[in-house]
Design goal:
binds acetyl coenzyme *A; ACP_syn_III_N; multifunctional enzyme; 29% strand; 331 residues; alpha+beta; single chain; Peroxisomal Thiolase, Chain A, domain 1; 2 domains; five-stranded mixed sheet; 10 helices; FabH
Length: 331
């Protein structure tokens, strides 16, 4: 059998920044309110002409470079996103842009859990021996779909992309698989807490034949319910994934949660009894970048020399669906 190992990471964020101060010119809010409730200070926004394909390709190329392979070596590209440039899929455009000529590419949608879901999905193709080199990208341009007049949501989100390269290793030795455990979950009964939904209107084409045509509604969210959900469910899946990995919480070197909100990060870490110095947080600078946030935080910590080879990383995503999931892996 084959094991998986993560050999590279990369990130790409827009250079244009919108501060809390800037936001207070658009909606009735303040830096004090936003920073104290969320930890967010600024977020990066994709500018006109900057596509998800652009950001995701840049993140992917950086991960491929760190892995020391060539784009033509990639067998599979999975793009986790909820904000595709093209609803038919954006992964193929990335495949073309980076010159991953032999890769098959597809999108995967699981909102802010997307990166963890992609990590787990990619690993299955390697473990069953089908593919050797997989590029996993999480990317979102939520600024496209935020209601910029709704102060309860527009303060939270930012744009960006992050990526990792996952490769096969021979696993005759049982412990060379670096994805040590995972647990992914969905609960559609809570779907109404967080939506970016299609909204159409009836349009009669000919007598007796009506279809529904329109566009998507900006993001709606029940913030308190999402908070409650995350703080309860995320520790559960991390504990389950650690159990599967045959590890205890104190063996975790780094906790990288989906960067939604500093209060959620603090509460989850506290419930798990993981000390603050092991919690990676960069949301002050980027806000909630949805499917990108975990990979961007991972890449920053790796390039800063915080995360070192052999470190045990517990990661978890949570968000719309509702979906949530954890993965434990060794860097
Ligand atoms: N500035 C100033 N005042 C505000 C703002 C703002 N930006 N937003 C809301 N308020 C006001 C409200 O209008 C309300 O005033 P009112 O009582 O007079 O009506 C008051 O502040 C409290 O509003 P709440 O919504 O109750 O604020 P809460 O304390 O719950 O904080 C927050 C809101 C920060 C969004 C919190 O609920 C939270 O962090 N939830 C988690 C959300 C999250 O992380 N979502 C992303 C999930 S991941 C994904 O898939 C996208």
């Amino acid at each position: 059998g084959k094991g998986v190992v993560i050999t590279g990471s990369g990130a790409a964020t827009p250079t244009v920044s919108l501060t809390n101060q800037d936001l207070s010119q658009i909606v009735d809010t303040s830096d004090e309110w936003i920073a104290s409730r969320t930890g967010i200070r600024e977020r990066r926004l994709a500018v006109p002409g900057q596509s998800l394909c652009d950001l995701a390709s840049m993140a992917g190329e950086r991960a491929i470079a760190m892995a020391g392979i060539a784009p033509e070596d990639i067998d599979l590209i999975i793009l986790a996103t909820s904000t595709a440039d093209d609803l038919f899929g954006t992964a193929s455009q990335i495949q073309a842009k980076i010159g991953a000529t032999k890769a098959v590419a597809f999108d995967l949608t699981a909102a802010c859990s997307g990166f963890v879901f992609a990590l787990v999905t990619g690993a299955q193709f390697i473990r069953n021996g089908v593919y050797r080199n997989v590029l996993l990208i999480g990317g979102d341009i939520l600024s496209r779909w935020v209601d910029w007049s709704d102060r309860r949501t527009c303060i939270l989100f930012g744009d960006g992309a992050g990526a990792v390269v996952m490769q096969a290793v021979e696993s005759d030795i049982a412990d060379c698989d670096r994805l040590l455990g995972f647990e992914i979950r969905s609960d559609g009964t809570l779907n109404h807490y967080l939506n970016l939904s299609y909204k159409g209107e009836a349009k009669e084409l000919v007598a007796g034949v009506s279809i529904n045509q329109g566009t998507f509604q900006p993001i709606t969210m029940n913030g308190q319910e999402v908070y409650r959900f995350a703080v309860k469910r995320v520790p559960e899946v991390i504990e389950k994934a650690l159990y599967r990995a045959n590890l205890t919480v104190d063996q975790v070197d780094w906790l990288i949660l989906h960067q939604a909100n500093q209060r959620i990060l603090d509460a989850v870490a506290q419930r798990l009894k993981i000390p603050p110095e092991k919690v990676i947080s960069n949301l002050a600078n980027y806000g909630n970048t949805s499917a990108a946030s975990i990979a961007i935080a991972l890449d920053e910590a790796v390039r800063a020399g915080k995360i070192k080879p052999g470190d045990i990383i517990a990661t978890a995503g949570f968000g719309a669906g509702l979906t949530w999931g954890a993965a434990i892996f060794q860097w």
